[in-house]
TrEMBL record, chain A:
Residues 4-234 form the ABC transporter domain. Gene3D superfamilies: 2.40.50.100, Nucleic acid-binding proteins (2.40.50.140), P-loop containing nucleotide triphosphate hydrolases (3.40.50.300). It comes from Bradyrhizobium diversitatis. Involved in beta-(1-->2)glucan export. Transmembrane domains (TMD) form a pore in the inner membrane and the ATP-binding domain (NBD) is responsible for energy generation. GO terms for molecular function: ATP binding. Keywords: ATP-binding, Nucleotide-binding, Transport. PROSITE patterns: ABC_TRANSPORTER_1, ABC_TRANSPORTER_2. Belongs to the ABC transporter superfamily. This is Sn-glycerol-3-phosphate ABC transporter ATP-binding protein UgpC. SMART domains: AAA (SM00382).
TrEMBL record, chain B:
This is Carbohydrate ABC transporter permease. Belongs to the binding-protein-dependent transport system permease family. It comes from Bradyrhizobium diversitatis. SUPFAM superfamilies: MetI-like. Signal peptide: none annotated. It holds the Pfam family BPD_transp_1. It is found in: Cell membrane. It comes from the Bacteria. Keywords: Cell membrane, Membrane, Transmembrane, Transmembrane helix, Transport.
């Protein structure tokens, strides 16, 4: 068990800087998820922690020890790879016992640990099989088992669910979460899937171009995004954005001039800024009964999801989505009135995207 | 019958014709050699060649009577096994190092050495080995044949090592393996079929190599292929004995080549990664 501390870390490939001056503190026993679009540097950062990539400058501490020049083999961390990376010539048992054998653990202890991990992951019947005889989900569990038996200082996961089908992904996601609560070990999980990030993390690191955009709890990242990038990345469907201006003591959409009813606090911030980008999550639209109270939209597409319904429409020159009650069954071409729920709107600086508070 | 089925039938027929033609061209000299070795000596060079004849072992008897055939065979075996072992000993770590570091110039250098004509090495080696009194020794022959075996091992194994997913090596690193241990415990078992193929190819090429043994061996260390050259004289050539010797020389590589086929198709890395 150990904390992970990254200080002024830079990673360059030749002249190309992937991670410029990054600082991050991961507490002991914490489950932290790195999330961001492809190429944001999240896997590179994980590989740096693992010792598979050298650091260009800065410091990395695992526990109290500076590990900049320490080989992966000596860092005492375990990693689950995206493609599982099992040893194909070894049986499942040997895959799991290999690291312990290298550390000179006694055979009895190895056997006890392997069988305990196998029981935990329900892979006991497969211990004498080779990886090629297992399904994707079973291989995934073996990869986790290989990590668990080590009892390492920290677990690193590099998009381990991306090769599983949707149903299995949900199941394994829950299992990893349960495992983290049982093992009480520091875990760092990389994903591009914001649902995985939201459901598993104690804290989320949202990355873009090697820079941390926000590092906070899932609730805070969702409810109080630090900037327009985070707001757009976290949440599905993504937050709707509309350029908005303060004109004649009211908020109006820059394109089309539609008046938007904002709560007093948000309106106050907009009046100070003059113009901004208004962010409204699809689930934070309400259907207005009074036409004067809402924004009239024409329904372009309806997606009934069962639990709720997504309505696609155009507003202020761009596409937008609202999530409404499934009891409401609008048809394509219908005109309905939507209004943002009070206190649920976000304003972002029109020039740098930072949230206006 | 549809057009597609017709086209398919014609493609199959053309493939068969191609295979038969290629097979005939490749096999004709070998068949000629084997048949000639069983012909009476006066029929070997008869023109037009005789296809129907009474087979005889007289050429084989002549071969064993006039030459210490078994000692030459033993010499060939010592030199070939030695140089193949040397090739594997240095070629396996070298191929792994090239694959691991992705620095390819050392491998290209060995390929250049392999592509260079053998005569290029011959004079400096002759001088060098004579200086240290090693002309005619097995060591000189084994070392010189390593120039043949080492590049073969490296270039056969390189794609095998490259074919192992990098993440498997990285998993081993995280598990606590040093690079050397990754080679022996992870990479080598996964390229076992490649090692077998490279060993067999190195064996065949070294076994059949003529030039170095002709110059660097002596009467005690002469290899089979160099000894067979003795049957070619200034005035007359003993074609029957030469064909018998050539047939016996060709046997081990042929047997090994048949074995290679079994190793070539191997799905050892299946299941290492997704899919």
């Amino acid at each position: 068990m150990a904390s992970i501390s990254i200080r002024n870390l830079t990673k360059r490939y030749g002249n190309f800087t992937v991670i410029p001056d990054l600082n991050l503190e991961i507490a002991d026993h914490e489950f932290v998820v790195f999330v961001g679009p492809s190429g944001c540097g999240k896997s590179t950062l994980l590989r740096i922690i693992a010792g598979l990539e050298p650091i260009s400058s800065g410091d990395l501490y695992i526990g109290d020890k500076r590990v900049n020049g320490v080989q992966a083999a000596q860092r005492d961390i375990a990693m689950v790879f995206q493609d599982y990376a099992l040893y194909p010539h070894m049986h499942v048992y040997d895959n799991m016992s290999f690291a312990l054998e290298l550390r000179g653990v006694s055979k009895a202890e190895i056997d006890a640990r392997v069988r305990r991990a196998a029981a935990l992951l329900h892979i006991e019947p497969y211990l004498d099989r080779k990886p090629k005889e297992l399904s994707g989900g079973q291989r995934q569990r073996v990869a986790m088992g290989r990590a668990i038996v080590r009892n390492p200082k920290a677990f690193l996961f590099d998009e381990p669910l991306s090769n599983l089908d949707a149903k299995l992904r949900g199941q394994v996601r829950a299992e990893i979460k349960a495992l983290s609560q049982e093992l009480k070990t520091t875990m760092v999980f990389v994903t591009h899937d914001q649902i995985e990030a939201m459901t598993m993390a104690d804290r989320i690191v949202v990355l873009q171009s090697g820079t941390i955009q926000q590092y906070d709890t899932p609730e805070t990242v969702y409810e109080r995004p630090a900037n327009q990038f985070v707001a757009g990345f976290i949440g599905s469907p993504a937050m709707n954005f509309f350029p908005v201006e303060w004109r004649q003591e009211q908020a109006v959409l820059s394109q089309g001039g539609t008046v938007v009813a904002l709560d007093g606090e948000t309106a106050g911030r907009l009046s100070k800024a003059g113009n901004a980008v208004l962010g409204i999550r699809p689930e934070h639209f309400a259907v207005a009964t009074d036409a004067a109270d809402g924004i009239a939209i024409d329904v372009k597409l309806v997606e009934p999801l069962g639990s709720d319904t997504l309505i696609h429409f155009d507003l202020a020159g761009g596409p937008a989505i609202a999530r409404v009650d499934p009891a409401l069954r609008p048809k394509v071409g219908d005109r309905i009135n939507l209004r943002p729920q009070p206190g649920k709107t976000h304003l972002f600086d029109a020039t740098n995207g930072r949230v206006l508070r | 019958m549809t057009d597609a089925a017709n086209t398919d039938r014609w493609i199959r027929r053309l493939n068969l014709v191609q295979l038969v033609l290629a097979g005939a061209i490749i096999m004709a000299p070998t068949v000629w050699m084997v048949l000639s070795s069983f012909k009476p000596s006066f029929e070997v060079t008869a023109y037009p060649p005789t296809l129907v004849f009474t087979p005889t072992l007289e050429n084989y008897v002549e071969l064993t009577r006039t030459t210490p055939f078994l000692s030459y065979a033993l010499n060939s075996l010592i030199v070939t096994v030695g140089s193949t072992a040397l090739g594997l000993m240095f070629g396996i770590p070298a191929a792994f190092a090239v694959s691991w570091t992705r620095i390819s110039w050392p491998a290209i250098l060995t390929l250049a050495a392999r592509m260079a004509p053998g005569t290029l090495f011959l004079l400096p080696w002759y001088v060098m080995f004579r200086q240290v009194g090693m002309i005619g020794s097995y060591t000189a022959l084994i070392l010189s044949h390593a120039v043949i075996t080492l590049p073969i091992v490296i270039w056969v194994l390189l794609p095998s090592f490259d074919g192992i997913p990098r993440s498997v090596f990285e998993a081993a690193q995280v598990d606590g393996c040093s690079v050397t241990r990754i080679l022996w415990r992870i990479a080598l078992p996964l390229v076992a079929s490649g090692v077998a193929v490279s060993a067999i190819l190195a064996f065949v090429f070294s076994w059949n190599y003529f030039l170095f043994a002709l110059v660097l061996s002596n009467g005690d260390t002469k290899t089979l292929i160099a000894a067979a050259f003795n049957f070619i004289g200034e005035g007359s050539t003993q074609w029957g004995a030469l064909m018998a010797a050539a047939t016996l020389i060709a046997l081990p590589p042929l047997v090994l080549a048949a074995l290679v086929q079994r190793w070539l198709v191997s799905g050892l890395t299946l299941g290492a990664v997704k899919g």
